[in-house]
Description:
Chain A is mostly helical. Chain A has ten helices and no strands.
Amino acid sequence: MSVATLPDLATYALRLGDDSLVLSQRLGGWITNAPELEEDVALANIALDLLGQARTLLSYAGEVEGAGRDEDDLAYLRDERDFRNVALAELPNSNFAVTMARQLCFSTWQLALHQRLTSSADETLAGVAGKAVKEVSYHRDHATQWVLRLGDGTDESHRRMQSGLERVWPYVAELFTTDELEQRLASDGVAVDVSALRPEWDAHVDSVLQEATLTRPEGGPMLPAGGRRGIHTESFGFLLAEMQHLHRSHPGATW
Amino acid sequence: MVTELERARSAAAAVLDPELPVLTIADLGVLRDVVVEGRRVTVTVTPTYSGCPALEVIERDVARAVRDAGFADVVVRRVLAPAWSTDWLSEEGRRKLLEYGIAPPLPTGQVSVTLSVRCPQCGSPDTSQLSRFGSTACKSLWRCNSCREPFDHVKAI
């Protein structure tokens, strides 16, 4: 079954699950490559939390769909156009400052979203959110500490942190772009209208940037939101190739 | 006389956490409920963290332990809500952690918790956090400034 014909609730679970899955895969790329051992461990832990959220959400999407697809089918056997994550989650790691800018923007948004989703009328979404809120608070704090340290550090770290922010900034608008499907579910008390999250996001991010002596990127182009419709950036296919290769080449393989 | 429920419950409760093997899942608060209906035993567990890989091992171990206690029909259910909290760790569990060399979690909701994590080796309150993420999802990495030993701390969530 194509993703385009899924029930609303399955699509919504897939969106949130894909955000977590794809970012988890990206963060995994830092393991053995982070600037210090503690960061290998930290980023692996954050990736693991995200993967846990993704597993529950993808399993749930499959259950709601009712066509017998499980979390592995959805993670490994869908093609690029059937993924529903925001583009920010798939942006390449690049250097550490870019990754931290991406983490700050994403986890600030994810925390605000899940705080509201804890009161969702849907029991599974509320359950996922209840756990995510505790975990993502640590993720946001981790990114905040690094952005402060790099922004208000040396001239070089400041320059790189500012440039990292500018790299990810065009993808921020998509986080707050709602659509009809989300609106329908929000009016039933199931989903969260993301356009309402912006003031809270701005408040946290602005205060971090100010303390970190960084400048909020303004006036640059904001890219149109395509992730929720399956339109992704150039690097995404390569991410999927790496993530899905083993499962597709050796169907049913187990450790 | 020991009831069927007590027997099933104590078999499930005695299962050890694979990553903190001094703690039982009852100490940890991961075991939420045990119900016996007819011949079927239903055990409910909850993950500590969303991605904690220990839960799959725990589910397998629980099913085996309850079967070994004489119940052929065992179902292990997983629930997410209410979300696990370190406040559910038993006093006994906290004591065992400390003896094992892991600083137990402080009560959640406490402001400036980072100021009062004591070294599990020498008891000094003069400690510093090296990383808020540690060897498993539930721990952070610390160092004692008195005895210089590094140690794990189960972070309050």
